[in-house]
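Take a look at the protein record below with the fold in mind.
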Amino acid sequence: MEFFDCNVFFGLPSQRPLSPVPTVEKLLAEMDRAGVEKALVWHIVQHDASPQVGNDLLTDAIFDQPRLVGCWTILPNQAHEFPSPTIFFRQMQAANIAALRIFPDTHRYLANAVSMGDWLEAMVAHRIPLFVSVRRGMTWNAVYTLLADFPDLICVICDHGCWGMDRMFRPLLERYPNVYIDTAQYLLDGGIESLVTDYGAQRLLFGSGFPESYFGGMMMALKHAQIPDTAKIAIAGGNLERILAER
């Protein structure tokens, strides 16, 4: 079973976790130690300081790293802080960037059709996945509003909290076929088994939340989950590979 982690960052945060990972080299060493083959990564500066600067730092760091795929951050573009989505998506492809993140609360905007319609319509058309964190920069109310405006958006909800937030995310899984849930901090006894039974293994992505959480915690939970091996393989990395290949 190969693990492709969908939820990893590196760099030195303004509020450091217990053991920050400042560089790509350190990140790869930790991935090797845990047995994680690939990761979809972002740079903490994308959240803590400037999306543009953080995007550039990420691009430079992963340029020659085949095991790492990048995830940039965007903002509403009324102030012309980014090129048009068409040009931006070409830049993504050239830089080995496969997905996007937003942090509306942190960056002081609303993620809806009024502020981000041009971005999100283009993402739906090009099947670019959007990763949102309900722990960092986005509330559940904002997630519900975003998906009501863009029901066909490929949206991966990350960092949804310890002990399970099923009453929050299960309605979204039921209503929106392109919503996915990562496993980071999903420490619920029988939770993985129940989600696979109710929604299928294809709606779950292995994510650790590293370095704020260890790789090994959710790796162990998935390895020992009472689900078929085919489901474990899909969650560990197959589902993310499929989503990224659809672009």
